[in-house]
Amino acid sequence: MKVIHFITSIDKSAGGTTVYMQLISKELKGLIDLVVVTGYSPNPVELPGIEVRFLDLSMFRFLRLEKEFLNLIKYEKPDIVHINGIWEPQTGLFQEMAQELWIKVVLTPHGMLEPYILSRHLLKKKIALALYQDRAIKNADYMLATAQTELDQFRKLGYTKPAVIIPNGIETADVKYKTEWMKVRNILFLSRVHPKKGLELLIEAVSLLENRNFKITIAGEGEPKYLESLKRLSIQYNVSHLFEFVGGIYGDDKWELYNQTDLFVLPTFSENFGIVVAEALATGIPVITTKGTPWQELETCQCGWWIDLTIQNLQNSLSEALNASPELLKSMGLRGQKLINEKYEIKAVAEKLKILYEKILL
C-alpha cells in the first residue's frame, strides 16, 4: 500500500504539523510505502529513510503546479493521498489532481477549522472557502480529527463526510524522564512564538504574581518583530528579568530543557492537539494549558491545570503551581507520564493510521 502525504512545508519554523510529520513518517515507513511531497524551505527537518519530493510551491508558479502535481501523482501511483492542512490553495489543488485520477483522499485539517483560526483573516478565509476550500473538504473521502472537540467542530460547520479521531503522538523512546521534583523554579513555554499562543496574557499574569522566585524560558521561533514586541511588553510590566527568550530548541537539547523544567505553560487561544503538552507530560512535568486545547485529561488525570484563557486564571494557576509541594508535583508528573505512555505513543498512532488506510481501500 502506497500513500503520499502532502504538506506545504516541513520547515523547522512551521510548528506542530512539521513535528507531527517527522514523528509519524518515522513509524509509517515500516508499515506502508510512504512518500512525502512538500515545498522547498530554508530549514526543512530531516525525514531519514523517507522518499521526500520537494517542489517549488510558490504562488507565482500556481498555474504550472497543476501539471506538475498530476505528473508526480501519475509517476508515484499511490493508493491514497493524505492532505495535511488547509487554506493554502496548493493543498486543494493537490487533492483535486489526486481525485481526478480516482485516488482516495484523507484530509487532516490539523486544527485549522477551529473557531479561533476561522476568526483570523476572516475575509481571506471566506474567499478561500468560496474558491476551493469548502469544495475540497466536502470532496475528501475521509476526514481525520485529532480530538473529539475537532470532530465536533467539523459537524458544527456542516461537514458530514466519514471521519475518525486519531490523536497525534510522541516517540516516548526519546523522552528524558524526570527523576527529581522540586518546588517550581523553572517554567517553560516551548512552541512556535505566535500571537495565538497567548504570550501577552502570560506576561501580564506574571506581573500580578507576588512570588517572583522563578524564571520563564520562552523557547521557539517567531517573527523577529513579534519577538521584540513581547520583550518590550515584559519591560513595560517590569518582569523582563523573569523571562529568557532562547529561540528554537530541537533534538536532544529540547529533551534536556524539558528535564530541567518544573512546570510547563501553553497559554494558547487555540490548538488542535498541542504536541508540546504531550512531550511535557511524558517527561513528568505538570502542565498549565487552556480550554482552547483538547487536554481535558489534565483535569481528569490530575496532572495539570486546564483553564479558560484569562489573565486571572493564568495568575491563579501559576500561583497554585508555585505554591505546590514537591510531593504534589511528583504525583502529578507521574500521572502525566502514565497517561502519555498508555494513550499517545506514536507507534500506536501509526498503527491506527494504517488500519484507517486499509479500511478506506476495502
Strand count, sense and barrel status of the largest sheet are:
7 strands, parallel
The CATH level-2 architecture of the largest domain is identified as 3-Layer(aba) Sandwich
Oligomerization state: single chain
CATH class of the largest domain, please?
Alpha Beta
Q: Give the SSE order as H and E letters.
A: EHEEHEHEHHEHEEHEHEHEHEHEHHH
**At the third CATH level, what is the topology name of the largest domain?**
Rossmann fold
The global form is globular
Give the strand order of the largest sheet, numbering strands 1, 2, ... along the chain.
Answer: 3-2-1-4-5-6-7
Cα radius of gyration in angstroms: 21 Å
Low-confidence stretches: none
Distance between the termini: 12 Å
Task: Show the helix and strand layout.
Layout: E1 2-7, H1 16-28, E2 33-39, E3 51-55, H2 62-76, E4 80-84, H3 89-100, E5 104-108, H4 115-119, H5 122-139, E6 142-145, H6 148-156, E7 163-165, E8 186-190, H7 199-207, E9 215-219, H8 224-236, E10 243-247, H9 251-259, E11 263-266, H10 275-283, E12 287-290, H11 297-300, E13 304-307, H12 311-323, H13 326-343, H14 346-361
Parallel strand pairs: 1-2, 1-4, 2-3, 4-5, 5-6, 6-7, 8-9, 8-11, 9-10, 11-12, 12-13
Notes on the protein architecture:
- The protein is an alpha/beta fold.
- The protein folds into 2 domains: 2-169 and 345-361, Rossmann fold, CATH 3.40.50.2000; 172-343, 3-Layer(aba) Sandwich (Rossmann fold).
- It contains 14 helices and 13 strands.
- It has helices spanning 16-28, 62-76, 89-100, 115-119, 122-139, 148-156, 199-207, 224-236, 251-259, 275-283, 297-300, 311-323, 326-343, 346-361, and strands spanning 2-7, 33-39, 51-55, 80-84, 104-108, 142-145, 163-165, 186-190, 215-219, 243-247, 263-266, 287-290, 304-307.
- The strands form 2 sheets. A 7-stranded parallel β-sheet has the order 3-2-1-4-5-6-7, with helices on both faces.
- α3 (89-100) links the parallel β4 (80-84) and β5.
- α2 packs across α3, α3 packs parallel to α5 (122-139) and α7 packs across α12.
- The protein is globular and about 60 Å long.
